[in-house]
Write a structure and sequence with these properties.
Length: about 210
């Protein structure tokens, strides 16, 4: 049985006042003429009754003490549980405040404005149910931003690849042009040298003004 239930079910012994009054009566003048043996028997019976009441009172006192100790222990445990709950409550409140003040990296990421997002994002990412949910809206904006950056990064890589190919092609053409120019210069020099040798080997034909008179 639970301590408190046992305490509530305890019946306190009757008051010993009635027995004490009867013992007092035995020594009063009203009983002076009574038989001594009978008086002794009656006195022993009353004393036995008084001892019984005393034992019952001791038992009730012990039970009540146990009940009180149990109730105090339960109260202490309840108080401890309350303190634990209050501590946990304060801890959770501090954690909530930390979360509210936490500066996430996404706050420093330049995103499409909300109007731009509504205009260019896929329809399923900007439905009415999403726009009414601030948390889901931010998640969708971040996801869209990531997809856009990946798309633009891929486009950038493609353009860089095209640039590299054009640079290689331009370099090849420039090298070819330089080679052709060198060959032309070489041909022109060779032609000039040949012309000089021809001029040295071939004498000029005299004209009529140089003929002797007949």
């Amino acid at each position: 049985m639970h301590t408190n239930d046992r305490a509530l079910g305890t019946v306190l012994p009757p008051s010993p006042d009635d027995v004490l009054n009867k013992l007092r009566d035995l020594v009063s003048t009203a009983y002076l003429q009574q038989d001594t043996a009978a008086m002794h028997i009656r006195a022993m019976a009353l004393i036995g009754r008084l001892k019984s009441l005393y034992r019952a009172a001791n038992t009730a006192t012990r039970v009540n003490k146990e009940a009180t100790a149990g109730a105090r222990q339960e109260m202490d445990q309840s108080h401890l549980n309350l303190q634990n709950l209050l501590y946990e409550k304060r801890h959770l409140e501090r954690e909530i405040e930390k979360c509210r003040q936490f500066a996430s990296i996404y706050q420093d990421i330049p995103l499409y404005t909300l109007e731009e997002f509504k205009r260019v994002a896929p329809e399923e990412a900007r439905g009415e149910d999403v726009l009414s949910d601030e948390h889901q809206l931010m998640l969708n904006r971040l996801s869209f931003e990531l997809a856009e950056r990946q798309r633009l990064d891929l486009k950038k890589k493609e353009l860089l690849q095209q640039k590299e190919e054009l640079l290689k092609e331009s370099k090849t053409k420039s090298t070819t042009l330089d080679s052709v120019k060198v060959q032309i210069d070489l041909l022109m020099k060779t032609a000039s040298d040949i012309q000089k040798k021809v001029d040295e080997l071939v004498q000029p034909i005299p004209g009529p003004a140089n003929e002797p008179p007949t």
